[in-house]
C-alpha cells in the first residue's frame, strides 16, 4: 500500500506538468510533504504569507487540488526595483533593492486515483496555522471493507 502511494507521488511530484496545474499563470509552487501513518495520510503545504481566505481545497475527478493566491502587501505593490527614486512630479517612490519572495497564484494537485479506494474522503480534516496547511485523510476502516459471511 505504501509503495503504491509512494510511486504515485514520486511520479506526480517530479513531473512539473502534473504537479503544478493546468495554467501558465502560476506565480509559485508551494512545497508539499505527504506522510502515511497507520491510519491516515497527512499532506502539509507551506503557504507562508497566504491569507486563509485565499486558499481553496477540493477533490474533483480523483484529484486533490490546493490552489489560491499569495498577494503582495500595499507597500510591496508600490515598490519596484529601479534606479530612480523620484517620479516626474517629485513624489518620493519606494525603492526596492532586492526581492526574493514569490507572489501570485498557485495550484497544486495530487492524483489520488490509485489510492482512492484506501481513503475515507468524508473524514478530511484541515488545519491552517502559522502558514502551514495540514490536511489529514483517514484510511478506510479495514474491518468495514472485509467480506463477512452471514449464516441463515
UniProtKB/TrEMBL annotation:
It comes from the Eukaryota. Residues 23-152 form the SHSP domain. Pfam families: HSP20. The keyword 4Fe-4S does not apply. Keywords: Stress response. CDD domains: ACD_sHsps-like (cd06464). InterPro entries: A-crystallin/Hsp20_dom, HSP20-like_chaperone, HspG1-11-like. Belongs to the small heat shock protein (HSP20) family. PANTHER family: HEAT SHOCK PROTEIN DDB_G0288861-RELATED. This is SHSP domain-containing protein. It comes from Dictyostelium purpureum. The lineage of its organism: Eukaryota, Amoebozoa, Evosea, Eumycetozoa, Dictyostelia.
Amino acid at each position: 500500500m505504501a509503495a503504491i502511494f509512494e510511486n504515485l507521488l514520486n511520479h506526480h511530484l517530479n513531473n512539473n506538468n502534473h504537479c503544478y496545474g493546468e495554467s501558465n499563470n502560476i506565480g509559485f509552487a508551494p512545497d508539499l510533504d505527504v506522510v502515511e501513518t497507520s491510519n491516515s495520510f497527512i499532506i502539509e503545504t507551506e503557504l507562508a504569507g497566504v491569507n486563509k481566505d485565499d486558499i481553496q481545497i477540493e477533490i474533483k475527478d480523483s484529484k486533490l487540488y490546493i490552489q489560491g493566491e499569495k498577494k503582495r502587501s500595499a507597500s510591496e505593490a508600490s515598490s519596484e526595483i529601479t534606479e530612480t527614486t523620484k517620479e516626474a512630479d517629485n513624489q518620493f517612490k519606494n525603492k526596492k533593492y532586492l526581492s526574493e519572495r514569490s507572489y501570485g497564484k498557485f495550484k497544486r494537485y495530487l492524483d489520488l486515483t490509485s489510492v482512492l479506494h484506501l481513503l475515507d474522503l468524508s473524514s478530511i480534516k484541515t488545519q491552517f496555522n502559522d502558514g502551514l496547511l495540514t490536511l489529514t485523510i483517514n484510511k478506510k476502516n479495514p474491518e468495514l471493507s472485509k467480506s463477512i459471511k452471514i449464516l441463515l
